[in-house]
């Protein structure tokens, strides 16, 4: 019996070894697993994660090149999940340590993508420059196209859509694998949408959608669908756009990519509100806001708060509407500030690149001069005049580049201080100059008045007549404000359709007269040169240092309260903070939606009165 048991145990051990050997023979090679992971990394995130886990468990089988490939894919997985803090150092280490030029270029391109996603645009543009300079050293054509894709993507994100379109079309001019073509098509249509040059036919975009669908690229195909839906909205095919978005929303949610999800849901919220389905609009917008912590300040968040504000207003829930309106205004200002920051990041990196180029040119010139001097030392003194000529040319070159640099710096300073559309002070510059004027008023004892005003229902002008008409109104408002102010006064665009005037050596009655004249001129604007007929109005809030003190923040707070009161009381009116109680009506009748269609030239509104409020 004992002998039989011993023989049985030996037989069982041999069987286990045979089974283990069979399993090893059946397991796919790590090269196959890595190849599958490369193919599925953006189309099937769950399978991609499982493949990386299998490869990680077999690290001892990896060659040096396969280990670097695994390190890249692990960083890609972290980036796709939004864990940029851990992905960035891994990629930097890969760039520093890898001996392979293809791997370094690939890691650099992914790093550009991460910086773009995390809104570190200056770092992304610098990394793009450091990466593309090595593109001729890359052997794999697919990896080279990866770098060009990231170039198109980051230029679209910083508002340089013509450059983004240039890179995308450069890619599409060559023979591309389906996945790369899908990326390039998405970037091309994103740039074309922002440049307002989308093709009139849907066929090219539908072909791009089929290309992305054929390879299972869920994220990219739905980005293109979003662009197509916005095109349909512009063509007044709202119901078709809703059907398209709702049909594919489940697969977008399964992809777990928050940047895409908020675009779908915010757009659905807008469309359902326009359709009159308040419950659906509220639901989509609320879900967008819930996801906002993962994507930061985006236009989708601005759109969601605007939808929630409009839904509450439609339901006559004034308290909730006011809360969401404030959040909408804050999100809109934050988004505009981020857009400005993107533009500034591009200008900063462009300036840095220019300065580096100039420095290299100066060093080259100096090096050439030194070489010439060495040669001239071997020659006779008859060549002295040649040296003098070369020195003069060098000094002239340095002076020329110094002059160019100074002009660039002056242009950059002007860009940082003014609003590009209207030419008025931007919020930051207005605040700095206003604080200096208030300090001066404190020393001289002069009274200073702050007038804040906001265009009423400005979105209706954009929606009904286009952004070109809205931009015309904003520029004309600033021109009217300048016509009513002196050199010592300030006028600034605080964000969107909100403006402020700081009037030096001016009491409340005088400031009220200026504001009322500005209100009347805005209401009397003749819009026919835009090709549309409409009336614009504005609501005003006024505070002065006599009642509010010399602190700018308090003055802006008081004027802002008066502005919101003017909005609440019916718009197209002025509310004045006087530190005491008493109300006098001064308004022009407000229309239902802030936009009046006319068939004859607009009439100048009659004066009514001023609301004076105190605490």
TrEMBL record:
Q: Which GO terms describe its cellular component?
A: plasma membrane
SMART domains the record matches: GGDEF
Which superkingdom, per the lineage? Bacteria
Pfam families xrefs: GGDEF
What sequence ranges are listed for the domain GGDEF? Answer: 446-579
Per its record, what are the GO molecular function terms? diguanylate cyclase activity
Q: Which reaction does it catalyse?
A: 2 GTP = 3',3'-c-di-GMP + 2 diphosphate
The segment annotated Disordered runs over 588-615
**UniProt xrefs under InterPro entries:** Diguanylate_Cyclase, GGDEF_dom, Nucleotide_cyclase, Rev_trsase/Diguanyl_cyclase, TPR-like_helical_dom_sf
Q: Which UniProt keywords apply?
A: Membrane, Signal, Transmembrane, Transmembrane helix
Name the cofactor(s). Answer: Mg(2+)
Looking at the UniProt entry, the stretches that span the membrane are 386-403
EC assignment: the record states 2.7.7.65
PROSITE patterns reported in the protein's UniProt record: GGDEF, PROKAR_LIPOPROTEIN
Q: Signal sequence: where?
A: 1-26
Instruction: Name the enzyme group at the top EC level.
Output: transferase
What is the protein named?
A: diguanylate cyclase
